[in-house]
């Protein structure tokens, strides 16, 4: 079996989606599936320094990079990819398309229909009410002309949660839905992570560390967290906020200005993009993880926090929020200052509750979000598709 995963970009700056495709393909290859990735050289506005239009080894995986012709948000057209896929699509038994409303997966779905190659679609949270409300008219037109047909001619739709499956059904998507969570890799344990992190940022032992680690984008609502902590600071609440992630310079500057305006500049550190050891140190050295996002189809950052033993505070917009709540791994609050303020204060002032939630979250992540388990089930689904158990 030979499978091609298609995604607009695997820039490290894009966080979750990039980690998902790389880890998933790595796990599938460990299961004996011959999997490659096709993508562009986009680097979140810049360009990756990689060989183009040939299969290269990237982070130990076979990847085809194609030059993007333009950058229209996440659309990323590529004429080189178009020509290559038309000529080579029959070399693959299945295409696995990541994302909607973007050129590469759209092109792949159309070509797959024309050349009768089965394909799956990973909708990546793009059918949530919040996501569909962004550029609403453009998405309605695109869905009517192209995306609706592409979805309904897929062999199967990969949903990462029951909530995402319900969103697909509401959108009118007819093919079978495969509900499989994403995975998370257990971190390399760092001895004395808490003391090392505090030393690095000059934070004393009695000050709890609040971590926000995600792409810096208004969807994730770091503004709400900053405003909420500003209210807590008025009540003399001790904390130090670490904000980790990349984003547009103007947006990051606005967040820094906001932290100053609510008088928590001296209690806030903007860490920037992190990976590897630096990321593990943040996750293992902090005291709680807060992501007051509008919408997440899964929330890989939350799973990474849980497997690192961090208690979670997040919103119902996260589609694994019911699992987090049921496992008592965190607190789910509405996205407004008062409820978020009380939740943060509760965990900041009760280290025993933080410890219990952290243990529960780690157990949930290890048991439910294993890349090996996900890969085995997805490989089985691929085989079912090839055996035509799923209609084309």
Structure write-up:
There is one protein chain. The chain has helices at residues 16-30, 79-88, 103-115, 129-133, 136-152, 162-171, 193-201, 222-234, 249-261, 276-285, 300-307, 321-326, 337-348, 351-368, 371-386; strands spanning 2-6, 34-40, 42-43, 46-47, 55-58, 61-66, 94-98, 119-122, 156-159, 177-179, 209-213, 240-244, 268-272, 288-291, 312-314, 330-332. It is of the alpha/beta class and 392 residues long. It has two domains: 2-183 and 370-386, Rossmann fold; 193-368, Rossmann fold (3-Layer(aba) Sandwich). α11 (300-307) links the parallel β14 and β15 (312-314). α7 (193-201) crosses α10 and α8 (222-234) crosses α13. The chain is globular.
- The fraction of residues in strands falls at 15-25%
Mass-distribution shape: globular
Number of domains: 2
Q: List the uncertain runs.
A: none
Corresponding CATH superfamily of the largest domain: Glycogen Phosphorylase B
Mean pLDDT: 93
Got a strand count? 16
- Main β-sheet description: 8 strands, mixed
**Distance linking N and C termini:** 18 Å
Helical residue percent band? 40-55%
CATH A-level architecture of the largest domain: 3-Layer(aba) Sandwich
């Amino acid at each position: 079996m030979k499978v091609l995963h298609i995604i607009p970009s695997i820039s490290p700056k894009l966080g979750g989606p990039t980690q998902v495709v790389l880890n998933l393909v790595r796990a599938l290859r460990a299961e004996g599936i011959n999997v490659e990735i096709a993508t562009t050289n986009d680097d979140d506005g810049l360009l990756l320094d990689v060989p183009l239009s040939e299969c290269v080894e990237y982070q130990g995986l076979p990847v085809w990079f194609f030059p993007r012709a333009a950058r229209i948000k996440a659309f990323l057209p590529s004429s080189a990819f178009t020509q290559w896929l038309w000529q080579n699509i029959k070399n693959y038994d299945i295409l696995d398309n990541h994302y909607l409303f973007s050129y590469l997966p759209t092109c792949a779905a159309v070509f797959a229909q024309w050349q009768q190659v089965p394909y799956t679609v990973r909708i990546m949270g793009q059918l949530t009410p919040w996501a569909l409300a962004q550029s609403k008219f453009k998405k309605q037109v695109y869905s009517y002309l192209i995306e609706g047909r592409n979805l309904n001619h897929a062999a199967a739709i990969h949903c990462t949660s029951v909530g995402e499956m319900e969103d697909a059904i509401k959108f009118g998507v007819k093919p079978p839905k495969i509900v499989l969570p994403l995975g998370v890799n257990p971190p390399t344990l760092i001895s004395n992570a808490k003391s090392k992190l505090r030393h690095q940022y000059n934070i004393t032992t009695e000050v709890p560390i609040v971590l926000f680690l995600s792409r810096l984008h208004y969807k994730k609502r770091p503004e709400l967290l900053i405003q909420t902590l500003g209210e807590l600071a008025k009540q003399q609440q001790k904390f130090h906020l670490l904000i980790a992630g990349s984003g547009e310079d103007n947006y990051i500057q606005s967040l820094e200005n906001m932290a100053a305006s609510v008088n928590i500049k001296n209690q806030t550190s903007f860490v920037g993009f992190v990976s590897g050891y630096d990321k593990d140190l943040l996750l293992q050295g902090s005291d709680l993880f807060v992501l007051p996002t509008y919408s997440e189809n899964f929330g890989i950052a939350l799973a990474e926090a849980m497997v690192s033993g961090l208690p979670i505070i997040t919103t119902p917009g996260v589609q694994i929020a019911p699992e987090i709540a049921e496992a008592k791994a965190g607190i789910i609050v509405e996205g407004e200052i008062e409820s978020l303020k009380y939740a943060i204060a509760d965990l900041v002032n009760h280290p025993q509750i933080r410890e219990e939630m952290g243990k529960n979250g780690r157990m949930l992540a290890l048991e439910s979000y294993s890349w090996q388990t996900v890969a085995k089930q997805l490989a089985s689904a691929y085989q079912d598709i090839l055996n035509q158990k799923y209609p084309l």
